[in-house]
Design a protein that fits this description.
CATH class of the largest domain: Alpha Beta
Strand content: 25-35%
Strand order of the largest sheet: 3-9-10-16-13-12-11-24-27-23-22
Number of helices: 14
CATH architecture of the largest domain: 2-Layer Sandwich
Number of strands: 27
Helix content: 25-40%
CATH topology of the largest domain: BirA Bifunctional Protein, domain 2
Largest sheet: 11 strands, mixed
Structural class: alpha+beta
CATH superfamily of the largest domain: Bira Bifunctional Protein, Domain 2
Number of domains: 3
């Protein structure tokens, strides 16, 4: 697998992405339509994502719980916007039993039909707010700050590994508050958590803003989002935070007694990110040599490759490799590594050539590779190779072994920063201010990117642009401010520019 050539990003971006996923050992298609098998290396990245985010959630006062996978159909119907928004994506369970047919296998037992169909959760607002009715009686029960790590099912017709699958893993926060102001503060706070995670852990710069009415979450009053630019200049919605108002509290009659003794409906939020973040990580940083993983999320931070042609050389270089690995793991824990130890792998597979081993770890995206051969031992030195700069330019030759630990630690931190700076420079270079719809229609095809344009605020215009160009409003950004202008399509007044892009 490691020896197979990866397709060029420039020539076939879609195939390049799939090659990375497959050949870096991240995931593969399942025999179940639209579903994926997340392989150990891919799941290890997801575990790093989970660990970092889970700490951030708990640091902001949230706790984890778990709710049922199956939702009665009547629950979904209680919130009209949600019912309409998810109806076409729902997987439905109608029977609860099979029966064996001799010589023919099994078939659905027609006598085992459910009294009420069950929906395999596409999202959990309905089942959770049905539960909250029993948990919330008084203002003293609020705020209720709950997160769930779970799998969900949305019956997507066109799927792509990590980016869009029928089943995927995610976290979904669901909170209840006594006041509108508290709920809105929570909505913005969790978006900031996502922004911080995306930029400081994934090294992926994002725009923050509000979704248009046409793009908001079904059942939300408004939706906030983080939007990232991939290397093909398309947008990826990397996370969302929804202010739900009192919609779900009213749908499920969740009331509490206020300090004044009045019955009031609770205020709600929900927010989530999913395994599509791994797809975003791939498309933000990887290259034609394989996967590139930001050090803070890397399952393996450092791989040490001892080299030797005979048993004596192999033994000598392995001993030095083991000593270096132990010294790296013994470094004081800090926030950069998520207060975990540095993860170090010693690759002593001497049956494979050094070149093959180097290429294999490069393909898997390990941030730093250490090479120790007999000549290096003779000079008490080693070679450091950084993954973000493949080839000779990324190699540091003759690094003294006595300095290797501090040099490697510093290098990992430098790589993290450089990856973010590179991605941000690319994003900023491909953001364009535009006023002409004709020019927009040409440039959205090539070179593509994020386009800041005036829009008259109507769904009709938004739909027209999407139909004619396949571009959508990614967000109404927070940081642009107001700017009077004219809609690029209709010429009608506009109060600010919004971000248009093609997206995943």
């Amino acid at each position: 697998m490691a020896g197979e050539k990866i397709s060029s990003r420039a020539q076939d971006y879609s195939q390049w992405y799939l090659d990375i996923v497959n050949r870096a050992g991240l995931a593969e298609n399942s025999d179940v339509r639209g579903c994926m098998v997340i392989k150990p290396h891919g799941y290890a990245i997801w575990e790093r994502i989970q660990r970092a985010l889970d700490k951030m959630f708990k640091d902001t006062g949230h706790v984890n719980a778990y709710f049922p996978l199956f939702i009665p159909k009547s629950f979904l119907a209680k919130e009209e916007q949600m019912a309409a928004g998810f109806a076409k994506e729902c997987a439905v369970i109608t029977h609860y039993r099979l029966k064996a047919i001799p010589g023919k296998g099994v078939e659905v037992d027609p006598d085992a039909k459910l009294d009420e169909e069950l929906i395999v959760r596409p999202t959990s607002e309905t089942i959770i707010w049905h539960t909250y009715k029993n948990w919330i009686q008084s203002y003293r029960d609020l705020p209720l700050l709950i997160n769930q790590w779970a799998n969900v099912v949305r019956w997507e017709m066109r799927t792509r590994l990590f980016l869009r699958t029928a089943e995927f893993l995610w976290q979904e926060g669901h909170t209840a508050h006594a006041t509108e102001a508290e709920a809105e503060e929570e909505t913005h706070k969790m978006l900031e958590v996502y922004r911080e995670f995306a930029e400081e852990w994934m090294a992926m710069p994002v725009l923050t803003g509000v979704k248009s009415e046409g793009q908001k979450f079904p059942g939300a009053v408004y939706t906030l989002c983080i939007e990232a630019m991939m290397q093909d200049r398309k947008a990826l919605q990397a996370g969302t935070s929804h202010f739900l108002g009192q919609n779900f509290a009213k749908a499920f009659n969740v009331q509490f007694q206020s300090k004044e003794g009045k019955l009031e409906y609770a205020w709600a939020t929900s927010w989530g990110v999913s395994t599509r973040l791994i797809g975003g990580l791939i498309m933000t940083h990887s290259d034609d040599q394989g996967l590139v993983v930001p050090p803070r999320l890397a399952p393996i931070h450092v791989v040490i490759c001892p080299i030797g042609k005979n048993p004596e050389e192999q033994k000598a270089t392995s001993e030095v490799a083991d000593k270096l690995a132990a010294d790296l793991v013994a470094l004081p824990r800090d926030a950069f590594y998520g207060y975990d130890t540095m993860t170090v792998k010693v690759d002593r597979d001497f049956e494979k050539s050094p070149g093959f081993r180097f290429n294999e770890w490069e393909l898997k995206g390990v941030p730093v590779r250490v090479e120790i051969g007999p000549k290096d031992l003779a000079s008490n030195a080693c070679v450091l190779a950084r993954r973000d700069q493949p080839g000779k330019e990324g190699k540091l030759m003759g690094v003294p072994l006595a300095e290797a630990v501090t040099r490697i630690d510093a290098l990992l931190r430098e790589i993290q920063n450089k990856l973010f700076e590179k991605a941000k420079a690319f994003r900023d270079a491909n953001m364009h201010q535009i006023d002409s719809y004709e020019e927009f229609k040409k440039k959205i095809e090539a070179p593509g990117g994020f386009f800041l344009a005036h829009w008259d605020g109507t769904k009709e215009t938004e739909d027209k642009i999407a139909e004619e160009t396949k571009a959508t409003i990614r967000c109404i950004p927070f940081n642009l401010g107001k700017e009077e202008g004219k809609c690029m399509v209709t010429g009608n007044p506009s109060k600010q520019r919004v971000v248009f892009a093609k997206s995943y």
